[in-house]
Design a protein that fits this description.
OB fold (Dihydrolipoamide Acetyltransferase, E2P), six-stranded mixed sheet, six-stranded antiparallel sheet, 11 helices, globular
Length: 368
Amino acid sequence: MDLETRAIVSDTLLRAVGVIKSYGDQTVVNVDTIEVRRGEVLALLGPNGAGKSTLVRVLAALETPDEGRLFYKGRRVGRDDPELRRAVSAVLQSPYLWRGTVAQNVEFGLRVRGLTAKERKERVRAALRMLEITDLRDAPVDTLSGGEAQRVALARALAVGPEILFLDEPTADLDVAVRRRLLADLERIVSRAAPALVLVTHDPGEAFSLADRVIVMEEGRIVQTGTPGDIFEAPATEFVASFTGAEFVVSGAVESAEEGIIVVRLESGQAVEAMGDLAEGTPVRIAYRPEDVVISMLSTPATSARNRFQVRVAALHRRGGLVRLRLTGGGLTLEALITRLALEDLKIQAGMAVIAQIKATALHVFPA
């Protein structure tokens, strides 16, 4: 084994191979391989029913797969392996708290591990301080709000000093304001919470803002793995593009291809240029992100964008500081996302004729 291979192995805390889990006749997880690396925040991203939570329960040794092997630090382990059980800690979507006070809940795992009273007291104090709930120390858990209960569950998980912390949809049941604050706190503590953190979420924004690496799941399988930039800028499939916020134009077919640039003739009759390597005649669908559509006035000089369309503003919807525009023209419908200030500067109104421009590099082409 060379030095580079040894470095990769040593950085891999947990690895699962050939994981299959079914309930009845329905296979909910079918994953060839997945690994959790030291020093990373890994996000499992996908819609409800994608198998994320089941996979996490297998990785966290909370559930036994029908098939598959689990390795901890290169050593094959089972669900009841004591070293693995001590190394992982999990907070599920609806955390269960024991009866008693907040401090008693946070202390629970420390008692199980046999720490002294002094060690338990110090760790409880540190965990409560990290989650900013020191003032709730003596509060009965049945008096807590949803956000407070989630913080207690996080404090309890962190207090034991896990090597791998699993968070399964930690903000899913929280209202908007509480969710925003917890996310901000997670960003603050993830770097020091544990050597590795695995976050399960159906929210691409949550995954992209917190994770170093993202695994996208669809129907129990992994369909793409990469950095947030990889997933956002180069979605591997139409599903990944759509799930992470892309819009689709009408279908078309490749009319020509030369030096990595293809021309697609849309069903509307318009032609667009995009980056790609597909044969002429290939039926395709094209995805783009509304924030990549640049709006300008008819009199504005052309830019380097290869795709330039004259359209009308069919509708506009204000969403806080952003405005979503629906643009139509020549049989083409586009969505654009601009700032409120840009809307005011350009004096855009419904019915106005404008130019919509989008670079070839901002289009993602998928075989239909």
